[in-house]
Amino acid sequence: MTVNDDDLQGGTSHVPGNSESDRGKASATSSTPSVRRRRRWITIAGLLLLLCAGLLAALILSLRDGPVSMDALSSDVGQDELRQIFGPEETEEGMEPAPGPSPEAETSSHLLRGQVLRPNGEPAPGAMVTAQAAEDESIHEALADSGGLFVFDDLPPGLYVVEASLPGFGPALAIGVRPRAAPLRMVLQGGRDVYGIVTHEAEPVPGAVLHVGSAGMFPQRTVVADQTGRFRLSGLRPGRYEVVATATGLGSGFGGRLIVDDDAGTQDDRIEVSLERARPFRLDVVDRRTAEPVPGVVLTIAEHPMHVVSMGQLLPDGGLDVDFLPRGTYAVRVRAPGYLPWEGELHIGGRPPDQQIRLSRGATVRGTVRDEAGNPLPRVSLSALVETPDGARWEMRRNHFDDLHRLVRPDGTLFWVPSFGYVTRHDGRFELAGIPAGDVMIVAESAGRAPAVSSPLTLHADAVYEPLEFVLPMGRRIRGRVEDRTGAGIGGAQVSLRPVGIPDWVPGTSVQTTSNGVFVLEGAPALAQLSVRHPDFAAIQIDVDVPESGRDGLIIQLSGEEMLSLSGRVFTERGAPAAGAVVWMMRGRTDLPVCRATVQEDAFFHATHCTANPERIVISHPRYAPLIGELGGVLEARDWRLRRGGELEVVSQRTPVVASVRPLFQLPASLWQRPEVDLDRWSRHLHGEMAPGNYEVRCRAEGFEDHVIEVSVDEGRRVEAVCPSLERRMRLPLYVVDHLGAPVRGALVFMDGVEPPVREVTDGRGRIHFESSPGVWAVVEAMHEDWGRGRMDLYVPWREPSVPLRVQLDQGVAGADPEGMLDLLAEWGIAAVVDGRSVIIDTIARGEPAAQSGLRRHDRLLWARSISEMRFSVGVRRDGELLTFELVRAASP
After folding, report:
1. What is the pLDDT of residue 420?
2. Is-contact 450 475, C-beta < 8 A?
3. 214-227 per-position pLDDT tens digit
4. What is the structure's pLDDT at 605?
5. Which CATH architecture best describes the domain 281-359?
6. Are the C-beta atoms of 619 and 640 separated by less than 8 Å?
7. In terms of CATH architecture, what is 71-96+104-187?
8. For a Cys staple, 462 with which of 112, 232, 361, 740, CB 3.0–4.6 Å?
């Protein structure tokens, strides 16, 4: 555009919109709808552009300056904001993360975060948070910020105990935590403060450690006294507490009591804990057979078993120098992987000698789990179902006999021993160690597959059984309906599934029926056992064949008699209502009731939801003897009258004894809780309010033979059970020597005829020790893979003999008939050769029972015995380890 000078000089400047005509045009233009829309879109685009620029700038700043600190977060962060910051909460602590994590999850796999809260839900700034690793006991610390938030940003993988503490509050604890992105919520404990001082001979003890516990406190608390011996316990709720204090060479022992009331504590309101001198001694835990130290021992010491306060110690080399226990008697528990648990008493006098605890190895079972195609299955869960000769039962699923939680050493430091389940490795192999001797069945289970059960095994202590082979097929489905006799569905019934052959005392997989009685069970084997229970019906148990396609439309009818209720009245001997008495309905040879009830103020009781027809009734009242009555099939309401019962007095003579009493008739487990009684020489103890019936009184003393007395208690009478002078048990050495008279180390010794039977391995001096009552005959067999075998009939003398007892290996391993031994082995598919006094396995025939037993070439034979026509036992030594194999011949069709 060209502008002329004339236009500039002679004309007037024209600004659009200043004239009235221009203003009118502008007004008309702005009122057009299309123009308004265009301007609106331009405004929105500008705002979006500004927002993107701001976000880009924030991203650049965060990359340059690093992540935002936890202190920058608001102290008013609530749970919704916490989830936005940390992510969703975990459903179960300590669970493995789901497979295939996202890249974000991988970067935060070593991150552990959370928030510490006061009891009222407010954040707890300044709280100290520690994370202790279970593997190496390393401790990591973090401080909660103004919002109570904490973070551990570089924890090694593993399991941790996380504890939060703040002065004036009790600690918060989480056990078995794995580092991950989900947060922890730690709530401190409220309560009152208790102040005190620890003294010895009226002088303060700086650095003393105080252990405090109660029935409602887990875990127990630990606090360290300051340089003046003073301490402060925070967050204690009203109640009764047990207190134990220790210091170097000093200890209070157990038995200290602390009562906390509702009043607020002050520093002027102090308690005093006095320490006594503790004489040092050495405590060693050794292998019963080899006398070698046992590694990895977990030792706990308390006033009595299941005490609320205990002191623990992890013994890597099996030994401990004890200098914190004054005179007294203490309960000791010892656990070690691969060994049977040990519990006993520790008596400490003025000058305690060194103590030794001998642990017995349990049996070990090894094997492999595969699928139907022969592929190894990793992460398969295994369990050992054990029934010992004395009637005890266990379902072992872990490498430790107990679940060991967080423990506290006498010096106040913490340690933790996690228990890991029996599972197969990546190659499908497994090893179950520490199994008690007895009849054992091994069960293998995996999600989506049918469980597999081994045939019953008879295990011996310190023996290895291998290999067990399991094949887990895919599980099958059972769908069905539970009905009553009219065909109506029964809702709420419990349907349990387990493989056929598993003992009844082992619980199976259970589901509940829907409101119309329908149930679905997954993972069933080809032959399954179903148990159905409902409170209003008798229990039923059936075996079900399940095809590969599953079983649909299974109808289970509860045709047993309905047991809606059983009623009656209970009176005292004077005719008053026995209010508060507990009524048990019992059936069979078991101590578990089928139903129970409580007597009301009007003397009536109503026992409902009985699972079976009861055969007898048991009624218990604190001031009367238990009433035991046979129902005889009569289930109508009737009256019962309580009596005072009889009395049983236990008397000791020249020997101090521990006397225990148990009924020889069935009572509910919770009803008979009479403790053992320590009796000095010529002393008595009276048991009152005894139900009429027969009882067993067992008198025992260390180093003596137990004596059992059976007595009959009658109503209104006192009967006496006299513990006689006990016969001393002999503990004698037995030596194994070769044909030249030299001691043989590592020989296996069997001794029958003594109680308990002996199965020991000789030590470096060719010696074992055995215990027995004197005056009995025993049969001793000893064997060694290189030096042969020997046998003798042994008479246990009444006093220690002047000449040591010894058995000589005067024959080869094959015995007096080597050819007969080789022929016997050949019948089971084992070709062996005699090498001097030894027998060495050469080849194993295919298709014979020995081919699947796990025996190998060059195994050195210890024994071979025919158990029956279908079973054959072989013992060998392989790489210094004793192995036992049981060969089973298939039955002919």
Report:
1. 67
2. yes
3. 766 667 888 899 99
4. 92
5. Sandwich (2.60)
6. yes
7. Sandwich (2.60)
8. 361
For residues 461-484, give the mean pLDDT. 89
Cis peptide before 467, with omega less than 30 degrees from 0? yes
Tell me the two tokens of residue 629: 């009555």
pLDDT digits (tens, 9 = 90+) for 168-192: 888 888 877 888 756 888 899 888 8
Q: How far is CA 289 from the centre of its chain?
A: 27
Q: Is the peptide bond before 675 cis (omega within 30 degrees of 0)?
A: no
User: Who's near 261: CB < 8 A, 6+ residues apart?
Assistant: 238
- Which pLDDT tens digit goes with each residue over 563-621? 556 889 999 888 889 998 889 888 766 666 778 889 998 999 988 777 677 888 888 88
Residue 385 above 70 pLDDT? yes
pLDDT digits (tens, 9 = 90+) for 287-327: 888 889 999 888 989 887 656 788 888 888 889 999 999 98
User: What are the distances in angstroms from CA 592 to CA 157, 383, 460, 611?
Assistant: 45, 24, 30, 11
pLDDT band at 167 (very low <50, low <70, confident <90, very high): confident
Report in angstroms the alpha-carbon separations of 18 from 12, 14, 125, 775: 13, 8, 66, 136
pLDDT digits (tens, 9 = 90+) for 705-752: 788 888 888 887 888 888 887 777 788 899 999 888 889 998 999 888
- Residue closest to 663 by CA, chosen among 686, 697, 688: 697
Residue 729 CA: distances (Å) to CA of 390, 696, 804 = 21, 21, 17
193-277 and 565-641 have identical folds: yes
What is the number of residues in the chain?
A: 893
Q: Please tell me the distance from the alpha carbon of residue 277 to that of residue 258, in angstroms, as a whole number.
A: 22
Torsion sign over Cα 842, 847, 851, 853: negative
Report which of 170, 154, 153, 171 is spatially closest to residue 162, judged by C-alpha positions: 171
Q: How many CA atoms lie within 13 A of 864 on its CB side?
A: 28
| Strands 438-445, 381-387: pairing kind | antiparallel
The pLDDT tens digits of the residues spanning 659-690 come to: 988 887 766 656 666 778 888 888 888 888 88
Could you give phi then psi for residue 876, rounded to 5 degrees? Answer: -135, 165
Q: What pLDDT is recorded for position 197?
A: 92
Fold (CATH) for 818-888: Pdz3 Domain (2.30.42)
Q: Which residue type, as a one-letter code, is found at position 122?
A: E
> 3-state class of 236 per DSSP?
strand
Can you name the CATH fold of 193-277? Immunoglobulin-like (2.60.40)
> What DSSP element (H or E) covers 29?
helix 20-30
Fold adopted by 646-722: Immunoglobulin-like (2.60.40)
Neighbouring C-alpha atoms within 13 Å toward the C-beta of 740: 3
> Going edge to edge, which strands form the sheet with 718-722?
684-690, 646-651, 718-722
CA distances from 534 to 202, 509, 521 (A): 65, 16, 17
Residue 529: C-alpha distances to residues 438, 493, 542, 584 (Å): 24, 16, 6, 29
- The residue to which tokens 């976000």 are assigned: 55
The predicted pLDDT at position 71 comes to 33
CB 777 within 8 A of CB 735: no
Burial class (CB in 10 A: 0-12, 13-18, 19+), 409: middle
CATH architecture of 730-808: Sandwich (2.60)
Q: Which of 216, 214, 217 is nearest to 244 (CA)?
A: 214
CB-based contacts of 310: which residues, under 8 Å, 6+ apart?
220, 300, 301, 302, 407, 408
Q: What would you report as the CA-atom Rg of the chain, rounded to the nearest whole angstrom?
A: 38
Per-residue model confidence (pLDDT) at position 127: 93
CATH of domain 565-641: 2.60.40.4130
Give CA–CA dist 735/804, Å, rounded.
7
pLDDT given at position 53: 62
Q: What angle do CA 14, 15, 21 make, to 5 degrees?
A: 90
Tokens of 693: 């019936």
User: Domain 363-471 in CATH: superfamily?
Assistant: Carboxypeptidase-like, regulatory domain (2.60.40.1120)
